[in-house]
Specification:
Order of helices and strands: HEHEHEHEEEHEHEHEHEHEHHHEEEEHE
Number of helices: 13
Mean pLDDT: 92
Radius of gyration: 21 Å
Shape: globular
CATH topology of the largest domain: Rossmann fold
CATH architecture of the largest domain: 3-Layer(aba) Sandwich
Oligomer: single chain
Low-confidence stretches: 1-27
Helix content: 25-40%
Number of domains: 2
Strand content: 15-25%
Strand order of the largest sheet: 2-1-3-4-6
CATH class of the largest domain: Alpha Beta
Distance between the termini: 65 Å
Length: 406
Amino acid sequence: MIVNRRQLLAGTSALAAAGLVRPAFAAGDTIKVGSILDTSGIFDAYGKPMDMALRLAVKEINAAGGLLGKQLEVIAYDTQSDMALYTQYGQQLTRQDKVDVVHGGILSASREAIRQTMRKTRTPYFYNVLYEGGVCDRNIFINGVTPAQQVEALVPYAMGKSGKKVYILAADYNYGQITARWIQKIVTDNGGEIVGMDFFPLDVADFGATIAKVQTAAPDLVIAPLVGGAHLSFFRQWAAAGMKDKIALASTTLGVGNEHKVLTAEEGDGIMVAYNYSQDLETPANADFKGRWAEEYGDANAIHEIAVSNYQGVHTWAEAVRKAGTTERGALIEAMESGIAIDGPSGRIAVDPKTHHAVLDVHIMEFENQKMKVIETLTQRQPIDTQSVCDLRANPDDNTQYEIQI
């Protein structure tokens, strides 16, 4: 088959648009950073800023001379919000592209779709997203908040403002189910009562019957670990039903993808959350980060919680590579376990050697005029939920996701 220059350029442009063309480096000239995210499809509001954050971190590292005398090369795949493509691209990154590290996954289901592939191929894996806790695997490092860091801060605060009768509305997959059990435990531990609990598939967008059910139960507080664009409909429908000023609302997920900017102030004001990051943190580090992001992308509007987690995950990995003097898995893990820490836009991020989770700050916040108003900052919270079941120093071959039992 003869391919002329015009056909070749057209084909190259199509591949570039799909994110599959990479610079022509000789083998061994670069350190390969694999990325696998939903940058299109129903979860792209999470994935696009995460991809932007990873690329910004890599650009900064390369501008400072790279790592070990080499530049970083990003090899990225868009899963189009299709879990099956996580499995396919996870194998592509590790077995064919032979990347040195993978940063990726958004939903807990996507993490579990690729985690065993990373482990089998001995490819260090960074999951930089808040999640339900309990993963114990020496090959993975987790840079987002867990229930002990987030829910244990949010629930007592929200109950103190509203009351002790709580209704839970959660996404119907492992994140929502396990987080709901943590909420049950923490509500009970603080003298509260669960008066109802419902779970919803990710494509459910009609909450009319649920709102009527909640009204009948008459809780003081609704806590909503709901996920994705379809579930955003609940908050709009709740406000439209006149409920926002009658029953308090808290969420472990709302705002992670900048959903509070999509809701009007009338729909969102007063909803309580707790995260590691907010654009509205008034710190020099955050101001500097937003300035660099705006310089790269035109403005800082896209930045959100898990984008910053991804950015900080890349820099944490880079710090470990510098300390190890190699990207080799064993030496890298030992460097990560040695007390690696960085100062990022959200504050100090340190690696807990026992669990490979992050020690980080958590900010209790309320939505106000489409912003996250910081009410209280809890510094350097430990992932004690996972620490209670996972000890990778004592059991380095553990490969379990422990789940709370109540």
